[in-house]
Amino acid sequence: NAGVTQTPKFQVLKTGQSMTLQCAQDMNHEYMSWYRQDPGMGLRLIHYSVGAGITDQGEVPNGYNVSRSTTEDFPLRLLSAAPSQTSVYFCASSYWSTGGVNEQFFGPGTRLTVL
Amino acid sequence: DAKTTQPNSMESNEEEPVHLPCNHSTISGTDYIHWYRQLPSQGPEYVIHGLTSNVNNRMASLAIAEDRKSSTLILHRATLRDAAVYYCILRDVGGSARQLTFGSGTQLTVLP
Q1: How far apart are CA B59 and CA B75, in angstroms?
Q2: Which residues of A lie closer than 8 Å to B, measured between beta carbons?
Q3: Which strands, in side-by-side order, build the sheet including A4-7?
């Protein structure tokens, strides 16, 4: 299993540009999520999904869109990039069940710089 | 969500045990205690979790106080590869979302 994969690893954008960060997992996990991590800080949740066709907002959703058309893929779209979105973005996945105890698997991250 | 408090940083010598503390005085009866760690330039990885009893796995042990207001992650023999930020996280068993709420964690430095 490849686990959770993210592309690209690095990206530089100009203010106002749009782009999509890709995330895929091959573990048949129902739950997928996107976090951002700013320098010296913990991760903050952007959006999450509990299954194909179902998404919801996390703590910091403004400026980002998501969709979940398949179990495997959960892309994150930046609509109009701003310097405040400069960050490292992590995708995570886990099984979905009651209890909230399932281990979450994280991807290697995408380092995004917005000029 | 209940909050956790961890020291900003700790140091350990290689091949010695490390005890990483976490305070969670407002923990509720349905909160699980989870530990994740983040190695440099990598995504977080799961370490261990528990509810009331002490837990052991191949990576670490988790000691939970009887009143559950604190816990300690124990690395039995620290290696250089264990240098990372360690996050103590509470997860409500009845929570509607399965996100992890990360604080700033403890930066562990392992000295050779």
Answers
A1: 7
A2: 4, 31, 33, 35, 40-45, 48, 50, 56, 58-59, 90, 92, 94, 96, 98-109
A3: A4-7, A19-25, A76-78, A64-66
d(CA B106, CA A10): 27
What are the chain B neighbours of A4 within 8 Å (beta carbons)? 43
Contact A108 B100 (CB under 8 A): no
| Residue A56 C-beta-side C-alpha neighbours within 13 Å | 10
Read off φ and ψ for residue B65, nearest 5 degrees: -60, 155
Nearest by CB: A109 against B43, B99, B105 = B43
Alpha-helical regions (H) of chain B: none
Predicted local distance difference test score (pLDDT) of residue B24? 94
- Parts of chain A with a pLDDT under 50: none
Q: Pick from A8, A2, A22, A30: which is nearest to A104 by CA?
A: A30
Instruction: Tell me whether residues B104 and A41 touch, CB distance under 8 A.
Output: yes
**In this structure, how many other beta carbons lie within 10 angstroms of the beta carbon of residue B29?**
9
The pLDDT, as a whole number, for residue B3 is: 86
- Quote the pLDDT of residue A103: 85
| Average confidence (pLDDT) over B15-30 | 93
The percentage of residues in chain B with a pLDDT greater than 70, rounded to a whole number, is 92
